[in-house]
Amino acid sequence: MDQLWSALSLQIPKIINGALITIVAALIGMALAMIFAIPAGLGRLSRQPAIRGACTFYVEVVRGTPLLLQLFIWYFGVSIVLLTLFNFNADIALYNLLTALNSNNLYNQLPPNIGPAIFFGVIGIAFNYGAYLAEIIRAGVLAVDQGQTEASLTLGLSRFQTMRHIVLPQALRIMIPPITNNFITLVQDTAFLQVLAVPELSLATQGIAQETNSNLIRWEFFVVELAIYFIICYSLALVSQRIERRNASGIRPRRGALAALAFARRPR
Questions:
Q1: How far is the CA of 47 from the CAs of 7, 42, 58, in angstroms?
Q2: Per-residue pLDDT tens over the stretch 205-219
């Protein structure tokens, strides 16, 4: 037991750094995925054939190709095109971004020349999940009764106001569970970044495990990795359940109001 603990304690800093990279990549990927998903999901409902066709093409192509292949295309294809045509260097862009956020210490802890892999890897994951979330958004909007849209338009609201104030708040209650499931899967799929040599949790743990010849110690590191992934994903599930309960309580009449209503209607 002492041998297991001593081996783990020596490698805890590397595991923590890998977990931090996983968490940061997942959070940024979630935000970017929603940026891709909202216009794509609403665009698929557009009356303009060009907009609807472009959004449908994006969704179907991304969902019909493997995530691993898309990561290679972003890292080995898009990065070269941007560098050749627009002289865009992802390493410099990432450094400037972290400089603006006063987070250069995080950048200095990364291996050299790993900036482009993180930059395009996170964008690739977000671009992939944006297509799946777009379908969730489209389905959530379609689940809202069409009569409410027609009523709001009759009252003089624009389509943008109707979508913002009438449709989306109701559709959000429907979309929260599947969106959370996709976010949990996104956290797990950050492990694919290891093919681009990004030192996230999975790659960091594998590198540590390969340094020992003891199968018991090796499996100890894998169990720790499993526990960290579980804590992150289960935390997301708890947050989702809390949001669902809050939304559900918002549409249920309170007992106090029901009691007051019953008293008011009680014959005297």
A1: 61, 10, 17
A2: 998 988 888 888 888
